[in-house]
Amino acid sequence: MNAASSRPDSDPRTGFLGRGPHFWAGLFVASSLALGLLRWTGAIEGLEIVLVLALVPLALLAAVFRAAQLSARSKAEAGSRGLAQARYVKRTALFTSLYLVAVASLSLFGDETGPQAVRVLLALLPGLAIIGVFWAIGRLMVEEEDEFLAMLTVRQSLVATAVALSAASVWGFLESADLVPHLDAWWVAVAWFFGLFVGAAFNRVQHGTWGSA
């Protein structure tokens, strides 16, 4: 047996195309931010173009879930350590899929000419899906039997909360002074998920592992 085959990361079940979930998650966040920036600056116009370009982050998101699923399955086969993570991946994949469907439905059918009741329902669905992701992270904290991994998840969430609230506070006061444009409130959730990756990076630097979330 050579050195490469004896390493856990060399097992194809621990990642997707030889890369772990955090690699694909980083690419997903970068592509999503790039698409949002292009849309915000007016570099791209038209819903059809945005939906076509959105296929790139969608494909990367699928890679994130596949890599996480393979990693959790590998850990579960070695013991009970990966069972909570496997359930977390399934729940997050479900609610993220519902979110994407809800956003697409809102973009296609939520125009001002439609019935108000339908518009309210379509506007609520993306937020409810995001709440589902928060619930999945909370369940991961409760169900994770490894106390060290549970601590890392809590730590990630605290860092994410600090990042989101700090960004919202600073931007809010800048907006009050008419120095920056208005942003919708759902950007706070975006900042929180970005903070989750910041927390994972802190875990990696200080404890040598990214964590579970």
What does this entry look like structurally?
Helices cover 74% and strands 0% of the residues. With 213 residues, the protein is an all-alpha fold. It has a domain at 146-213. 23% of the residues are buried. Keywords: Membrane, Transmembrane, Transmembrane helix. The chain crosses the membrane at residues 21-40, 46-68, 88-110, 116-137, 149-173, 185-202.
What is the fold's blueprint, element by element?
Layout: H1 21-41, H2 47-53, H3 55-78, H4 83-109, H5 116-143, H6 147-176, H7 187-207
Query: Strand-residue fraction?
Result: under 5%
Order of helices and strands: HHHHHHH
Q: How many helices?
A: 7
The biggest sheet amounts to: none
Structural class: mainly alpha
**Overall pLDDT level:** 80
Helical percent range? over 70%
Global outline: globular
Low-confidence stretches: 1-13
Distance between the termini: 33 Å
What is the β-strand count? 0
Q: Could you tell me the radius of gyration in angstroms?
A: 19 Å
What oligomeric state do these chains adopt? Answer: single chain
Features:
disordered N terminus, 7 helices, about 210 residues
Summarize the structure.
The chain has 213 residues and is mostly helical.
